[in-house]
Amino acid sequence: MAINYISAQAANVSSLTTVYQPTTTSSVQATLIGCLLANTNNVSTTASVTLTNSSGATTTYIINNVVIPPGNSLDILNAARIVVPYNYAVKVTATLKVDVTISSIEVT
């Protein structure tokens, strides 16, 4: 059993963007251990984070329309852990640009 620690980043995200997609094998178990949204604007922004399957047919919100004050960041998991199912991706959208950092563990 191998454990891989993954860090995925995306800067200036506004339109729907895939920030993290686990290794594409059904034998990999991926778990989100951190998801930080940073507002680099001088006004508040609203952001959403989803789990979406590869066909786009199933979308589940991890957080929806959360307001992030200017110059602040938000840890949306707050020490929780979320298993990312096979063929799913973590996607982010925002009204203004945000920087996103995701930490995960992939076990094979």
Descriptive account of the structure:
- With 108 residues, the chain is mostly beta strands.
- It has a single domain, classed as Nucleoplasmin core domain (Jelly Rolls, Sandwich).
- The chain has no helices and nine strands.
- The chain is globular and about 45 Å long.
- The mean pLDDT is 92.
Question: Which helices and strands, and how do they pair?
Answer:
Blueprint: E1 3-13, E2 17-20, E3 29-39, E4 45-53, E5 59-68, E6 73-75, E7 82-84, E8 88-94, E9 98-107
Antiparallel strand pairs: 1-9, 2-8, 3-6, 3-7, 3-9, 4-5, 4-8
Overall form:
globular
CA radius of gyration is: 14 Å
Q: What is the multimeric organization of the chains shown?
A: single chain
The biggest sheet amounts to:
5 strands, antiparallel
Q: Do you know the CATH architecture?
A: Sandwich
Compact overview of the structure:
0% of the residues lie in helices and 63% in strands. It has no helices and nine strands.
